[in-house]
Design brief:
Number of helices: 13
Low-confidence stretches: 356-365
Largest sheet: 6 strands, antiparallel
Number of strands: 19
Mean pLDDT: 84
Shape: extended
Distance between the termini: 47 Å
Amino acid sequence: MIDSEILAYLGERGAAAQSPMYAYIREWEMWWRGRNRAFHEYLENNAMGHPVRREMFRMNMAKKVCEDWAAVLLNDRTGISAADEAGDAFVKKVFADSGFLRQANRLVEKAFAVGTGAAILRIADCPAENGVLLADERTRLSFEFVDAAHIIPLSVHNGQITEAAFVSEGVERGREYVYLETHTLEDGGYCIRNVFFDREDGLLKERDGGKYANVIRTRSPVPFFAVLTPNIVNHIDERSGMGMSVFADALDCLRGVDLAFNNFCRDIKLGGKKVFINQSLVQRDENGNVYTPDDVAQQLFVTIGDTDIAEHPMIAEHNPELRTADNAEAVQNQLDYLSFRCGLGTHHYTFGGIDGRTRLTATQYMGERQDMLQNAVKHQKNVEIFLCGMVRALLWCAAEVWRLPVDADAAVTVTFDDSFFTDTESQRSRDLEEVKAGILTAEEYRRKWIEV
């Protein structure tokens, strides 16, 4: 989480103001990590009447929701291309060498958890002549990915962050340090400033950045960073430029899921058979150790007195009711509320069928996903802006830093994987009918469905 001293440092320079968002970000991150101590821990009296701290059984559905959104919105079938051939080849090589898509997928998960994420383009070992960056054989491009807890918006226009500071922490030879990187517009181009602080006795002390340049004037009108947020209006601090967690308004649903699941697990834990034995059947050895009949495999007993064993059994058992069906229904209902509130549709998490149905046709299955499809299309707009922002920065670098014959303003196209929402069986049957009608050729059908 961003250090208050960093905010003070930027505030003294008129660059940043305290936002209420970071308190919410802390809470959202706790839910994403699966343990909110204020909710998941409670006190319970033991057999002696002493309070014992317990932890609830939990499903960690906040993380699952974000994982599912990341899988739908950005995966290995997501296509990114530039209209300029040389530029497209440059972008694809940088993305492949840096593992961009794999890291970006993780960023989508984290951004949907805490509301905001960002990718930062960094140039290493790039000499400058008269303040102009010129790449040589040693120059490399890489990406840094950060979440909302390490982003400080400096300027926001029309809801978009145009200037920002990024904070990261690390350890260098046993010494803790904080790295502050600011991206601001100056004279029509972006200027990057790097500041390093040592952390000593809990305080920050500015130090020399060593091999890192204090100031890099890129001259680029395109930012070397791109911000990603869920396409949800921020009703906490709309002017901040920060986004909302996809489960920000579903915290009560997350509590409901864990309460229902905790009750389910506790019923199972406490539902084991209980056997009660009359004291007269218990034996003790010379050391006072207690033995029950089962411990010594005893089957013959002698009763004393007129006690009716049928009426007053010497051994009694208690079989608690597990309430499996009731508990399963409670958990399922809470999951339905949660998935609906997080935009995944009412029945995204369904165990044992929908409305008592254990089997669904492909058409029915796809129909249940319409709510999710609508929200996915909405979120894809923000993912597209994020990806295009990174491609734009790379195209500018190819043209201005590497001096390649690249059109920095070439059109960028992003295509998303829609197989999750597509009824492949119905599409294939429809295409086959079009072949019979002469609308689609047999060769076109073969290329689409048979040749892989």
